[in-house]
Amino acid sequence: MGLPSYLKPYLLFLLLCLLNVITINSKKSLKGEAVLFGGNFPALYVIGDSLVDPGNNNHLLTLVKANFKPYGSNFEGGKATGRFSDGKTIADYGIIFFFFFFFFSHMGLSKKEKNNLSTGFNYASASCGIFPDTGKQFGRCLSMNVQIDLLNKTIKKNLKKKFKRQSELSRHLGGSLFMTAIGVNDYAFTYKKNATDANEFASKLLNEFLIRLERLYNLGARNFFVNNIKPLGCYPNIIAETVPRGSCDDSLNLAIDIFNVQLRESLSHMRHKLSNTSFLYSDYFNFMLELRGPSSNQVSSNLLNTTSPCCPKVYNGGSTTTCLPFSKACKEPDMFIFFDPRHPTQIANFMYAIRCFQERQVCHVVID
Question: pTM score, two decimals?
Answer without folding.
Answer: 0.89
